Amino acid sequence: MVTALASAALLWLGTCWMMFQHIPSWYQPILVPPDDLQKVKDDLVATFDQLSEKMVKQNQPFDCRFTQDQINSWLAILEQIWPPSRDWLPPSLSDPFVSIDPKGIRLAATYRKEMLKTVIGARLEVGVTATGIMLRLTAVSGGMLSTPKSWIKEKLAALDQSVWPAGKQLKSQYGQDKLPNLSDLADGILLPNAWIWQNGKQPFKITNLQLDPGSILITFEPLPRH
C-alpha cells in the first residue's frame, strides 16, 4: 500500500514537473537575423512617424492596425536600439512575446533561475469604455500549470510597491488620473484613455480596440488643444 502511494506521488510530481516545463505551442518569440535588423528598425520608425503625422494633422478619428508579428519583431530588437528597456523585465525573464486573438491578449516570457526554466504566461481581457481602458487578468500559468489567484495577487502587490507606481498622479487630457493597483488586475482595472502624444504635444484618446487573430486595431481620436 505504501509503495503504491509512493509510486502514485512520484508519478504525480513527475507529471506536474513536465507540465511546468512545457513550452506552449503559441509561444514563439521572434529572433531577428542580423540581415533583417535594419528592416525591422525602419518599420518601427516608419510606423511611429505615420502615427505621429496622423495624430497631428488629422482632426477626426482614425484607425491603426498593429500585427502580432510586427509587435514581436519590435520587442526582439528593442533592447538593441534602446538598452534601458531591459530594465522593464526582471533579470530572470527574457524573450517576451505577445499573442493576440479575439478573446484577449496573451503575454509570455521565458523564466530562468539556476537549473529551472519555463514559460510564464498571462492572459488579459482588454476593452474600451466611456471612461477608460479596461484590463482584466484572467489567467497566469507556468508551462501548462495554472497559478492560484492568491499567489498572483501577492506578486502583483509587490510590484505595486516597486516598479509600478500605483496611485501615482498622471496628467492626462482631463486633468489628474491615478494609476490603479496591479493587485486589482484579477478583478479588472481601468486605465486612463486620454493622453498627450509627445511628438507635437497633441492630446488624444483611444476610443476603440478590436482584437482579431494575430492583430489589434486601435482607433485614435485627436482632441482639441487647450
Give a quick rundown of the structure.
This protein has 226 residues and is an alpha+beta fold. 30% of the residues lie in helices and 37% in strands.
What does this structure look like?
This protein is of the alpha+beta class. The chain has helices spanning 2-21, 37-57, 68-81, 149-160; strands at 62-67, 93-101, 104-113, 116-128, 133-142, 145-146, 169-172, 175-178, 189-191, 194-197, 202-212, 215-222. Helix content is 30%, strand content 37%. Helix 2 (37-57) crosses helix 3 (68-81). It is globular and about 55 Å long. The termini are far apart.
Count of helical regions: 4
The chain-level mean pLDDT equals: 78
- Counting helices, strands and paired strands, the structural category is alpha+beta
Q: Say how many strands there are.
A: 12
Run of helices and strands: HHEHEEEEEHEEEEEE
Q: What global shape is seen? A: globular
Poorly predicted ranges: 4-20, 166-176
Q: What gyration radius follows from the Cα positions, in whole Å? A: 21 Å
Beta-strand fraction estimate: 35-45%
The helix content, as a percent range, equals: 25-40%
Could you describe the largest sheet, including whether it forms a barrel? 6 strands, antiparallel
Terminus-to-terminus distance? 78 Å
